[in-house]
Amino acid sequence: RVYMKKILLCLCLLFGYSMANDKDGFFLGAEIGISEVRVAASANGGSGKVELSAPMYGFKAGYRYFFSDLIGLQGYISFKDSFVGIDSSFNIANVKLQGNGSSHFMPIMANADIIFDFYKTQNYSFDAIVGVGLGFAILNDYSLIGNINTSHSAFYSDARVGIGTSYDNNRLGLVVSFPITQATKKVDGIEYKIKQNYAVALTYDYKF
To answer: Model's pTM, two decimal places?
Structure first.
């Protein structure tokens, strides 16, 4: 009887590992959503800020590994682009900026997410994630900073939470991210601090 219990325990452990191992693998993903880009500027004792809603899209590629049937970790590289159309003029840090073009705020990040696979049915599973990203943000400026065509980059990091559902190798999710740091750049004597106040995105991943 003792041997039988040991055999059954081994079979249960192997079965649990096989279920978890089926979820491991490389994945590619895409996302689309909306974000709010905040630009704060200061110069010569003056300061100001502007917040602009921006459509967003992105791509990611990485690897997902489950330590058990419930908890996993995914690491991936991501690229996002929040593109802001400007069609009016405004003042920031006592400098008049003429909005007649567009700007792109593009974080490029290395990310790590913890996955909690908290509920399963026969065909579907439901999960929650929490994670952080580190990298840098590029601002391709066609109207926002200095009203000239320039490109700036600076260190950037963010955090995220989300929920998702998986079926076979497909996963749909809803993710909300927010900044930990902001990209800081000085142009023509004006210091700019740029970040995404938030980003909300629908995501799709395919695991190979």
So the answer is: 0.76
